[in-house]
Amino acid sequence: MKGLFTIGEFSELSRISPKALRLYAEQGLLAPTRVDDESGYRYYRAEQLPAARLILLLRAADMPLREIRRFLVDPSPELLDQYERRLHDEHEARLEVLRYVRRVLEEAEMFEVQTKHVPAQQYVSKTANVTVDELGPFIQSSIGELAAGGIDGAPFTVFHGLVNETDDGPVEVGVPRGGGDRELPAGNVAFVAVSGDNAKFPEILGAYDALTRWAKEHGRDFAAPPREVYLSRPGEPAQWEVAWPLGQ
User: Fold this and answer.
1) CA 1 to CA 119: how far, in whole Å?
2) Taking the CB of the first residue and of the last residue of the chain, which one, N or C, has fewer CB atoms within 10 A?
3) Taking the chain, what is the end-to-end CA distance rounded to the nearest angstrom?
4) How far apart (Å, rounded) are the C-alpha atoms in residues 133 and 111?
5) Domain 4-74 is of which CATH architecture?
6) What CATH number labels 114-245?
7) What tens digit of pLDDT does each residue of 58-100 get?
8) Is the pTM of this model over 0.85?
9) Is the torsion defined by CA of 155, 225, 242, 90 positive or negative?
């Protein structure tokens, strides 16, 4: 047809495979100009090449299709800036994990496991299922919200489930308060002191690993989920304890 390209011809011009072109049409990024009712053949116009080139370039930058669709509607530098900052942050996070793995291989850092008896503690709390990215903001906002009603000790987070790339808890943020509706039972805990950068991900994982190794080496069982106790005040360098209740 005059002025129209078949999907194969448009694929060669745009350097996008026919399979990808069909996907982009399904996702609302780049629909064919015409689809023959009888044959189902798809046809494109030359005027669609600039959009196809943008999609190709943004996919090369690993931008998700939903964000590309948004960019095609509003191709603003601000959206590119936002994505660039996120890429930078994600890249730095991955590099930090690799640096931590290197330290683990070199055994550059060890956590000292100690035990102690803790008394029963009444508290109020807030529980939610959260992703890795949501965890920190949820802890901070929950402590602020709960502490507004009074606080009688160091706030903490109980991890009732794993929080990682595939699991979302749940986690419970607690603030000690006399007369609270919940209670941490008295008992012995194994714990490690965590400070500074060691309180950040992924270094904090080393504290949990140290506790797990210690329990295995000493033939001890854990009686309840682990918790992080936040001893420092907001704005101060991190001073935490990672504690794990022990069985009898």
Assistant:
1) 82
2) C
3) 82
4) 25
5) Orthogonal Bundle (1.10)
6) 3.20.80.10
7) 999 999 999 999 999 988 999 999 999 999 988 888 888 787 7
8) no
9) negative
